[in-house]
């Protein structure tokens, strides 16, 4: 079952009164999300029975995995199941799949859930009115998480930032970019104006991917976290006897891993801040346990790409 389906299934099991209470909130106290949820429970007789029971639960996809919620209570000898387990529909089949000799009983119990037991996606699903689209995804750049907002989300942006700060480990800053920006509002360096909506008011961060470390400032340079796999794939495709020219190198996500392979690399960017961070990142990533990779492996230029093509490439 996909995460989206799990979110939908979990919310459908909540009471209508609870959903009405939190729908449309622009701010909240954590106590607002305290509620009672009835869950199916399996009672086991011996610890040796736990493993075969869990195998069946996994096979039939009846497991429950909630933040800060124990699905096994050894003191009560019980295993909690997902609310989609219907005793009348599923108990008989469950027992047929279970190994012979394993004794267990089924029941339902009420459990108290709090703000800590909800995921960020579930909270957004509960709070946003039906006519507001859900937030499609987040991008992590070091300790920063970037979220793309549409106009209907604007009035909820502080709440969105707070929830992400609470729910996503290691995140210290939440920044927002919205779909209303036009090309004229972007500058020639492709730097989008971000707004800090929660946490530390700083756009400087350190991002790590595929063994490389990149320092950057989101307010000074362009960065796209969705290209992480492309960075790796392209850097591995370049023939070792080639000369690589990266006309819009940014902070070096392509140029640095290519140069680390010993391939002569020309890294150019029109943005002087990109070259500033590229130099910092080259110094960090070219340092190895065996010493430093030759600085001749990468040549950095701060020019228009057309100039590099017309002038610098003629000297190769």
Automatic annotation (TrEMBL):
Keywords: Cytoplasm, Methyltransferase, S-adenosyl-L-methionine, Transferase, tRNA processing. GO terms for cellular component: mitochondrial matrix. GO terms for molecular function: tRNA (guanine(37)-N1)-methyltransferase activity. Residues 138-316 form the SAM-dependent methyltransferase TRM5/TYW2-type domain. It comes from the Eukaryota. It catalyses: guanosine(37) in tRNA + S-adenosyl-L-methionine = N(1)-methylguanosine(37) in tRNA + S-adenosyl-L-homocysteine + H(+). InterPro entries: MeTrfase_TRM5/TYW2 (IPR030382), SAM-dependent_MTases_sf (IPR029063), TRM5-TYW2-like_MTfase (IPR056743), TRM5/TYW2-like_N (IPR056744). One of its GO terms (biological process) is tRNA N1-guanine methylation. PANTHER family: TRNA (GUANINE(37)-N1)-METHYLTRANSFERASE, TRNA METHYLTRANSFERASE. Belongs to the class I-like SAM-binding methyltransferase superfamily. TRM5/TYW2 family. This is SAM-dependent methyltransferase TRM5/TYW2-type domain-containing protein.
